[in-house]
């Protein structure tokens, strides 16, 4: 692992690191925030998965999460959204290929050799950060935005017992029935839709739900509402009697102004589930 930068931030350290990923067969970059409490021992971890077009950097510099994490004593991890590099497949559309990994393990050419973002976020990066930083692997939570909200919800439901709590900002809730999903899942996984079910929050919620508290925030003025399909997720949560809350935030759009407004609520929600408050 190589340190790219480390900056003092709210009494802790915001770092950026790169490493050779065996999983993605390329160099991957991630951000990691250690709160001041990490100087005294391992701290719990909140994963933040980002959306389409993002790198590790967008949320790190725009979500305003570090002040809240420092207050709660939580570390933050900001993974990239896809493998990158010259030898890595890409598409000219912003919503496929580099910057649009959709948190799945691709099984189709030309994506399959590098696009293994499920395994990267579920296995390889957790093992790396726990070995390199003072993090408590037994206390983890996950959140994300849009494509990253989809990733946070599907990983949380797909890995029972891993995350104490899950949350999402404007998640792509029902990708198997959305233009933000059908194109990507068929490209990465093939046309057989049964293979998509493990990567659709609504279908997972209908099937089994999440084994912890869940918080979802959705702006009423989000420009991508038709693609996100929040109402179907809200219905599925209610039908499942899923512990948690689905909130419509009046007047908010899809931007990081929305995310930064409610980030404090999400960090406090996870701190509570991780027994930090
Ligand atoms: N370029 C596209 C949409 C790009 C966009 O809005 N990306 C969002 C995530 S959308 C779902 O995953 C984002 O987080 N952008 C980065 C940022 O810093 O805001 C278009 O214009 O339609």
From TrEMBL:
One Gene Ontology MF term: S-formylglutathione hydrolase activity
EC number in record: 3.1.2.12
Highest taxon above the source species: Bacteria
Active site (UniProt): 146 (charge relay system), 222 (charge relay system), 254 (charge relay system)
InterPro entries: AB_hydrolase_fold, Esterase-like, S-formylglutathione_hydrol
Keyword Disulfide bond on entry: no
GO biological process: formaldehyde catabolic process
GO annotation, cellular component aspect: cytosol
Top EC group: hydrolase
Function, as annotated: Serine hydrolase involved in the detoxification of formaldehyde.
Designated name of the protein: S-formylglutathione hydrolase
Organism: Tropicimonas isoalkanivorans
């Amino acid at each position: 692992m190589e340190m790219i930068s480390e900056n003092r931030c709210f009494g802790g350290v915001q770092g950026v690191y790169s490493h050779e990923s065996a999983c993605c067969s390329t160099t991957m970059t991630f951000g990691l925030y250690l709160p001041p409490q990490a100087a005294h021992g391992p701290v719990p971890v909140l994963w933040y998965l980002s959306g389409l077009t993002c790198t590790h950097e967008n949320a790190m510099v725009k979500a305003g999460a570090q002040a809240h994490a420092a207050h709660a004593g939580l570390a933050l991890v900001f993974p990239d959204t896809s493998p990158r590099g010259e030898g890595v497949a890409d598409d000219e559309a912003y919503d496929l290929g580099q910057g649009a990994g959709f948190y799945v393990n691709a099984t189709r050419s030309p994506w399959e050799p590098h696009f293994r973002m499920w395994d990267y976020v579920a296995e390889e990066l957790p093992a790396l950060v726990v070995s390199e930083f003072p993090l408590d692997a037994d206390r983890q939570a996950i959140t994300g935005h849009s494509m990253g909200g989809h990733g946070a919800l599907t990983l949380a439901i797909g890995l029972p017992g891993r995350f104490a709590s899950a949350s999402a900002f404007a998640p792509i809730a029902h990708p198997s029935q959305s233009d933000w999903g059908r194109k990507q899942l068929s490209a990465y996984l093939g046309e057989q839709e049964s293979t998509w079910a493990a990567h659709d929050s609504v279908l997972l919620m209908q099937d089994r739900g999440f084994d912890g508290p869940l918080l979802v925030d959705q702006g009423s003025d989000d420009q991508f509402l038709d693609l996100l399909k929040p109402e179907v997720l809200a219905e599925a949560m209610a039908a499942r009697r899923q512990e948690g809350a689905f909130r419509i935030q009046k007047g908010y759009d899809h931007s990081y102004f929305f995310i930064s407004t409610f980030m404090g609520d999400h960090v406090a929600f996870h701190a509570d589930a991780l027994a930090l408050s």
